[in-house]
Amino acid sequence: MASVCCFTSSLVPLHRPIHQFSSFLTIPNNKNTSATATASAIVPSTSMKNSKTVWIWTTTQHVMTSALERGWNTFLFSSPHQNLAHHWSSVAVIFPVFVGEGEILDGQGKRVASVIDVSTPEELERLRPEDEQSENIVVNLLDWQVIPAENIIAAFHNSQKRVFAISNSTSEAKIFLEALEHGLDGIVLKVEDVEHVLELKEYFDKRAEESNLLSLTKATMTRIQVAGMGDRVCVDLCSLMKPGEGLMVGSFARGLFLVHSECLESNYIASRPFRVNAGPVHAYVAVPGGRTCYLSELKSGKEVIVVDQQGRQRVAIVGRVKIETRPLILVEAKRDSDSQTVSILLQNAETVALICPPQGEALSKTAVPVTSLKVGDEILLRVQGGARHTGIEIQEFIQGRN
């Protein structure tokens, strides 16, 4: 992802119109501030979904160094901070640009972006792609945020122009990056606290993780046994799941089963494509960042990983968790290349199913109910390191018993 960083004074009020922030200041280019390098740093990649440009506004060096570690290396300076521009250019390879009157300029005075304040519906209505000369447009939403951002995305959807919004926190940045599913092309994160930069880095890491296929392997059922009563967890998501999708759950972190959602139709009960009847409270469930947590730890607002038969993954938000006492069934499986078995306990009900390996192009058999499982049936398994500390994989000796 191509990314840009910007910095400005902490003395400026957060919600003043941008054109009042500073006047344009030209400083001589040194070896680190060539106009060519500045321009190339601002050009984003062509991927709309995965490429988001980040500008960070700050005068805090700790924020600057953290941004550089992320690869965000274009900085914006207002006129009172020319010495800061020289200083940072002497200690790091950066690309300084400057805020002018309603525009952002590089060191040669070339316009990088136009800056527009939006505080009324009329000002928003006047913001149209055909009326803007700059390739990049920075909007300062002084009143509402979500609806204006959605309207801007719709208006610029088929345009070559790129639109950014100023945000004062990571939570605001997420609003702009996710509005209308596509999000704006970038954000200007105006902060003095490094935690916001770290949180934004983590957010982008999660987005990148979704584009990676998870390695799933075939496993063969070796034992199915009624186990008695236990407290099982239904996880209701804020997203709908399709056939072949579910959550990765297991009694041991070293082997997670792909438990199907309740999206399949039945004559006896309505489908609930937002729900996974995931297993007992002790079981592990996969969450973003390569981590696991206990099903008993899930609650509204937490994130989990939804995975399909092909290993495609996406992040989903938990809307509700239901824990109820139900009859359980124990299932064990192992890979042909491994003598070690892994297990999972699930509610003993026809609506609970494990996802099967895809059969070439034919994906009609997506899952098999636990009530129909037989020894020798094949299901999908995620094999990974077994030792965990607070859900994070670590290298240590651990022996788990089925």
Automatic annotation (TrEMBL):
Could you tell me which InterPro entries the record lists for this protein? DHQS, DHQS/DOIS_N, DHQS_C
GO aspect biological process, one term: aromatic amino acid family biosynthetic process
Q: Report domain 3-dehydroquinate synthase C-terminal positions.
A: 219-399
Give yes or no: UniProt keyword Amino-acid biosynthesis: yes
Tell me where on the tree of life, at the top rank, the source sits.
Answer: Eukaryota
**GO MF terms on file?**
3-dehydroquinate synthase activity; oxidoreductase activity
Task: Give the signal peptide, or none.
Answer: none
Domain 3-dehydroquinate synthase N-terminal: from-to ranges: 52-204
UniProt keywords (A-Z) are: Amino-acid biosynthesis, Aromatic amino acid biosynthesis
Q: Which PANTHER family match?
A: 3-DEHYDROQUINATE SYNTHASE, PTHR33563
Give the protein name, as stated in the record: Uncharacterized protein LOC107471224 isoform X1
Q: Which organism is it from?
A: Arachis duranensis
Gene assigned in the entry: LOC107471224
